[in-house]
Amino acid sequence: MTFINTLKGHRRWVKDVLFSPQGEQLASTSDDWTVRLWSVAVEDCCLTLTGHKDAVQSIAYSPKGDLLASGSHDKTVRLWDVVSGQCRAVVQKFQGGVYSVAWIPSTDTDYMYLIAGCQDGSVHKWQVAEKEGQYHVTLCWNATNGSLAVTGASIQDVRGLSPLNKQLLKQRGIEGEPANLFREASKKLITMASVVSQMRQPSDRLEPDCPSITIISDEQTQQAEQQVEQKGGQQSEQEGGEHD
User: Fold this and answer.
1) Where in the chain are the domains?
2) Burial of 225 (0-12, 13-18, 19+ CB in 10 A)
3) How many CB atoms within 10 Å of residue 2?
4) pLDDT below 50 — which residues of the chain?
5) If you ran DSSP here, which 8-state letter would residue 165 be given?
6) Contacts for 53 with CB less than 8 Å, ≥ 6 apart
7) Model pTM?
8) CA distance 163 to 21
9) What is the spatial distance between Cα 93 and Cα 96, in angstroms, rounded to a whole number?
């Protein structure tokens, strides 16, 4: 390894450095709130990116190398055009400083994914899509303290879910529930949910406004179905006795 040069320009500690995928550019972040882009060929700063309101902790080039994501202690991620230096999007709604960012390519050329790790221990996945020169960033999911919150998810093609689990997932905001449910089936699901809630321990019951998704095991589902059938049989006998 041979020393080549020292790149000077940041006014405070340098936090992260990274070469572009093509190797023609070097990006660096600093406690001075800036991101600097350096030309490898001329060994000089070609662009200084400003906009963050606190130390910039990490950077990541997109798979094609045309975008640069920067995570900052100001609780934002900014997307930069590496040619013009223009800020193309600002991703917010983080509860702490963003300490790590990374890109995930997609088989669909219309979008890619951005991952952000935060000071509060949370991880966020965003979909980044370009349309007519504008970048649109959509939250896919975030995980905090062992709890996973999903946005815009669908169970339409998921296999192996019992009817009760489908109903519970639907109640938590999951999309894609198959249509044309029979009225009697709906009544049975409601009754089963009531039975299962009684079977569960008080500390583990599903609260109406809880963001977590609770999946009922197959064994619990079978037990609930048996109790529902028993109750249904008892109700039928009572109704028959009343008619007699």
Assistant:
1) 14-150, 163-243
2) middle
3) 3
4) 179-186, 203-214
5) H
6) 33, 72, 74, 76
7) 0.61
8) 48
9) 9
